């Protein structure tokens, strides 16, 4: 059930499912870090697996990677 993602589909997914914008224009695979721009204006890198499956869809400021208490 591997869905083949293209940069266009990823861009569409990002726009529909987050407030972030995809800045990367080429997609080479799931391990690639993609460059996004968060709604706050910050840019951040994240591979698409994390973005999609782990709901890490904002920059580290708006959504810190780990919640430390
Ligand atoms: Zn942000």
From TrEMBL:
What is the superkingdom listed in this entry's lineage?
A: Bacteria
Name of the protein described by the UniProt record: AraC family transcriptional regulator
Q: Which organism is it from?
A: Natronobacillus azotifigens
């Amino acid at each position: 059930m591997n869905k083949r993602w293209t940069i266009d589909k990823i861009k569409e997914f990002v726009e529909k499912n987050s407030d972030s914008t995809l800045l990367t224009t080429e997609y080479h695979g799931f391990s690639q870090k993609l460059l996004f721009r968060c709604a706050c204006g910050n840019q951040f890198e994240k591979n698409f697996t994390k973005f999609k499956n782990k709901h890490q869809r904002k920059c580290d400021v708006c959504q810190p990677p780990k919640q430390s208490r």
